[in-house]
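Posted in: Protein Modeling Q&A

I'm a second-year student putting together a small comparison for a lab meeting, and my supervisor asked me to include a predicted structure for Glycosyltransferase RgtA/B/C/D-like domain-containing protein. I've never done this before, so apologies if this is the wrong subforum. The sequence is pasted below exactly as I got it from our records. If anyone can share the structure token output, I'd also love a short note on what stands out.
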Amino acid sequence: MGFYYDQGRDALVIWNLWHSGKFFLIGPVTGLSGIFLGPFYYFLIAPLYLIGGGNPLLPMVFLAILSALSLLLIFELGRQIHSRSAGLIAAVVAGFSYYIIYYSRWLSNPNPMLLLSMIFFYSLWKIISGGRRRWWPVSAFVVGVSLHFESASAFFYLFIYFLFILWFLIRYLKGLKGGLIGSKFWRFVKLNSRLIIVSCICLLVTFIPQIIFNFRHDNLLMDNFLKLFTEKSTWQRERYHYFRFS
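Accepted answer (user: helix_wrangler)
Welcome! Here is the predicted structure, written out as tokens:
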């Protein structure tokens, strides 16, 4: 296990929480200047640092266990999509993957993304295969939570989620008989209003810490985010850095 700048930075944040009572509403910084992840990663490892007396080994082992749990979802997803053999092969390939093994022991905020990714795609599969409505809030919540762990993958999931919702909506509207597209859409909204509200709440609740931080610090996060698009030189520089090193 390597313990470098990022690990020391995170350990110091946790130390200040337990010994100085300094609570946090944002997580590690991203590759974009002034843009921070959410604090869920710190929430996840803070109790483990406390239990382990500040030893980083316990959080590292816990994150490795999360990666191992993702293999179960890989197997189950493969089994449901194709067959038990397909699920077993997928789990074995993932289990012996050098990159998964190597990064599962990495004490850093992107580590839980493998498990979150599998939960995300599993929830989409359950929506497609069985029309199980309860997985919509789960998928929305996972997309929001992913923005607390790793920005590049999370934005990719936001894009995928948007396309999935669009595809699902088009397919659903085509199945409705009679009326124009507009009337069909409003029928869909009325029939699923509660589900839509719950899913939106599940997504938005993950942004509460950043929203509170933003208001407490004179709109700092939003201003930094808008600068990426309003200041041309900043956008070009940060865009190159983001896609080159993320």
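A couple of things worth pointing out for your meeting: The first helix runs from residue 5 to 20. The chain has one domain: 5-245.
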